[in-house]
Every structure is written in structure tokens, then in C-alpha cells.
Specification:
This protein is of the alpha+beta class. It has two domains: 136 residues, no CATH class; 148 residues, Nuclear Transport Factor 2, Chain: A (Roll). It has eight helices and 13 strands. It has a six-stranded mixed sheet with strand order 9-8-13-12-11-10. Strands 2, 4, 5, 6 and 7 form a five-stranded antiparallel sheet that branches. Helix 1 packs across helix 2. The radius of gyration is 23 Å and the shape is globular.
Length: 332
């Protein structure tokens, strides 16, 4: 092969790679849903999901600022959520065909584990996520949000979980996934609604202190200081964080759910959280106390965060009683 022909061949290969990458986002995703749903509704769901991701994949390729969504396919509330996710980070479905089960949900149906790629993120784990699509009983898309990892979802939903009522297991999954999505797409109205007006926000930070002369240098050089905020103070600071970072990504890598022994409407959710933003990253233990007295409008009464590592990046080994949980609060 001559030098000229080699260069022309190389250019052709590179162009082919670029065109393949472009087509990857341009592709249409076909959906095949199984079980649970009458054929006529299932067909509507499949058609609406295909139309939504056809627009998303095409808009990703064209780098559109806003999606063009149809009210025939998507409810108004879902439109707002989808546009806010799009504004936070453009994304597309990575598959050309998805076959999955339909699950019943409180307001209709849902399908899980729709693989998508987000442009914003520091790691592949930030960028490659699974999504949930919610549908009305008639098949219209009513919501879309970022899913828990399949093993975390299974951990909550299995019958051996401490939460015996499957309805509450479903509700807790729904709240945690929407809670996470709200941070990732900077949805302050959702967070304002989900936090009780009387919410208690506790945040810990590691302080380096001067060691005593009679204590070895490796011991007692750090302590955790806790600050307490009310809802207004917390959301005001959170808005500043949202405004100063082009992207926010939180992930939950572990989850434990417990029901309060004395109040059947109260649940505690402990999550190992990874927080990544444009300017800052950390890991910690997040605890949420959730009140389901009004099942359709659950409220977070307590949010606490404790750092996972010290100022040197070493993991802090908490005693079990040092991780804040349900037992640290008196219910009246």
C-alpha cells in the first residue's frame, strides 16, 4: 500500500468510526414490554417510550438545548422532569432494543433498568446510569428518573427485608430514586416539597485537632463537628451549590431500610452516598427519617450526613452506635 493510499485508508477508517459514534446516539430504541399489562395498553406504552427516546437520541446528536415532547406521549409533570434532567446533562439510551418486564406501581405501571449515557460526570459510573419510566394506567409516560442499582432495588424488595409491607418497600424505592434524581437535576421545588417545614438537617465535618502530649500521634488527632440547620437554611445553601456547579451527581452504593418500632408510619433509610460535583467530591453516610402518615405526600423529617473519610482520605470506622439512625430521635 502506498503512503498516499494508506493515509486515505486511515482517513476512511477514522470517518467510519466518527459516523458510527454519531449513529450510536441517533439510533431508534425499540421497546418490548412483557407481562402484567393488557395488550392495548402495552402497545401504547411501547409506542410512547419509543417516541420519547427517539427524540432524546436525536436531540443528543443535534445538541439541542430543549427536547420537543408531545403531550400525546408524556404528561405535563413528566415533561418538566425530563426537561430538567436534560438541562442538567444531555443523555441518550445506549441500546437499540430493550425487552423488559412491566411492574405495577402505585399510579399505574413502570419499567426499570433503561440504560442511558449522560455527558456530565467524572467517571463512567457517573455517566452510565439506569432509568425508570413510569406510566399512567392508560399508558402515557408520567415520570422518568434515575434508578437504584439492580442489587440495591432487589435488597429492598426481597421478602426478607425488615419492611414486611410490599407497598412501603415500593414507596421507599420510589422516594429514594426520586430524591436522588432531584439532586442530580437540581430540582429545588421537589426538594422543598419532600422536606418537612420542620425538618432537621445535621451535617458532620472532620476537624483536625492538636494531639495531647500523652496520646500517640496517630490517635485523637481528628474529631467530627456537627452543624444543625433548618429547612430554609439548608435549601438556601443548596441553591448556591446548584448554581455554582455545572453538574451534580450523587450515587447510593449501599442502602438499609428500617421501620420505627413505635410508629408504623416512620421509616429510617441509611445510605452510603457518593457525592460528585464540578468542584467537589466526598463520601459519607446519609440518613433519612421519612414520615408516611400521608402516603401520597411523604415528608423527610430528618436528614443527617456523616463523613466516610478523614482529612487524609482514611476511612473512619464508626462504631454501629455512632452512625445516626432511628434510635437517636424521640418520636412524640
Amino acid at each position: 500500500m502506498t503512503k498516499h493510499n494508506f493515509i486515505r485508508h486511515l482517513a476512511t477508517v477514522l470517518l467510519g468510526i466518527l459516523l458510527c459514534a454519531q449513529a450510536y446516539a441517533q439510533h431508534t430504541t425499540e421497546f418490548l414490554f412483557k407481562e402484567t399489562v393488557p395488550d392495548n395498553v402495552r402497545n401504547i406504552m411501547q409506542t410512547n417510550a419509543k417516541a420519547l427516546f427517539k427524540e432524546i437520541n436525536s436531540a443528543y446528536d443535534g445538541n439541542k438545548l430543549e427536547l420537543t415532547l408531545s403531550k400525546n406521549d408524556v404528561t405535563e409533570a413528566a415533561m418538566k422532569r425530563i426537561q430538567s434532567l436534560w438541562a442538567a446533562s444531555h443523555f441518550y439510551c445506549t441500546e437499540t432494543g430493550i425487552t423488559t418486564r412491566v411492574l405495577k406501581s402505585s399510579n399505574g405501571f413502570q419499567v426499570r433498568n433503561i440504560p442511558v449515557f449522560f455527558t456530565q460526570g467524572k467517571t463512567d459510573e457517573d455517566k452510565y446510569q439506569d432509568m425508570v419510566i413510569e406510566f399512567t394506567s392508560g399508558g402515557k409516560i408520567s415520570d422518568i428518573y434515575i434508578a437504584l442499582a439492580p442489587h440495591q432495588y432487589a435488597k429492598i424488595m426481597r421478602s426478607s427485608n425488615e419492611v414486611s409491607d410490599i407497598r412501603y418497600r415500593e414507596k421507599i424505592v420510589d422516594l429514594v430514586e426520586n430524591f436522588r434524581t432531584a439532586y442530580n437535576c437540581k430540582d429545588l421545588p421537589f426538594l422543598n416539597d419532600i422536606y418537612s417545614d420542620e425538618a432537621l438537617i445535621i451535617t458532620g465535618k472532620v476537624l483536625t485537632v492538636k494531639p495531647r502530649g500523652d496520646v500517640p500521634a496517630a490517635i485523637n488527632q481528628q474529631k467530627i463537628e456537627y452543624s444543625v440547620q433548618n429547612k430554609k437554611q439548608y435549601l438556601t445553601k443548596l441553591k448556591t451549590v446548584f448554581d455554582s456547579n455545572s453538574y451534580i451527581n450523587i450515587r447510593f452504593v449501599d442502602i438499609v431500610v428500617k421501620r420505627h418500632e413505635g410508629n408504623p408510619n416512620i421509616y429510617g433509610v441509611t445510605l452510603k452516598q457518593e457525592w460528585n460535583t464540578t468542584r467537589y467530591s466526598d463520601e459519607g453516610w446519609l440518613f433519612l427519617m421519612i414520615d408516611y402518615e400521608n402516603e401520597e405526600n411523604p415528608q423527610i423529617w430528618v436528614r443527617t450526613w456523616q463523613p466516610l473519610t478523614d482529612n487524609s482520605g482514611n476511612v473512619i470506622f464508626y462504631n454501629p452506635e455512632d452512625i445516626i439512625g432511628l434510635g437517636d430521635f424521640i418520636m412524640r
